[in-house]
Amino acid sequence: MAVDAAGEAVRLIEEAEERLKEARAVLGAINGGREKETWPGERILAEILSEGGSVTRERLYELAAKHGMDRRGLGGFFRASGKGSLYEVPGMDRIILTPSGTEVARRQLERREGITYDEPSTGAFAKVAEGPFGEDWDSDEDSVYDKL
Known about the structure:
Elements: H1 2-30, H2 40-50, E1 54-55, H3 57-66, E2 86-88, E3 95-97, H4 99-113, H5 124-135, H6 140-146
Antiparallel strand pairs: 1-3, 2-3
C-alpha cells in the first residue's frame, strides 16, 4: 500500500514538473525567450550549497570572480543584523551557509536545474544503521539484558 502511494506521489510530481516546464516555455515566449536575470550572489550561494554548504574563504573568492562579483562586495553576505547568508566559523577557514542563505541557494538551484525526485527506497537508513547493531545482537554481553 505504501509503495503504491509513493509511486503515485512520484507520478504526480513528474506530471507537475512537466507542466512547470510547459509554463516556463510559455513565459519564455512572452519574455522574448529571456530568462530572468539573477543576482550573482544567488548563483554563488547555489554553488556553495552544491559543494556541501561550506567552502574556504579562497574558494568563496574564486566563486565570486567566476560570477563577476568583486570580492569586496561579499561583505553583504555576512550581515550581523537581519538575514545574513553566510557565516564564518571562528578559528577555522570555513564559510558556511546560514538557513537564510540555504533557502536562497535552494530556490536558485530549483530554478536552474528543476526539482528531481527519485522513488524512495524503503529502509535505506535502517540498512545503514542496523548493520553493526545486528551483528552483536546475540553476543554474550547483550545476553545480560535479555533477562531484564
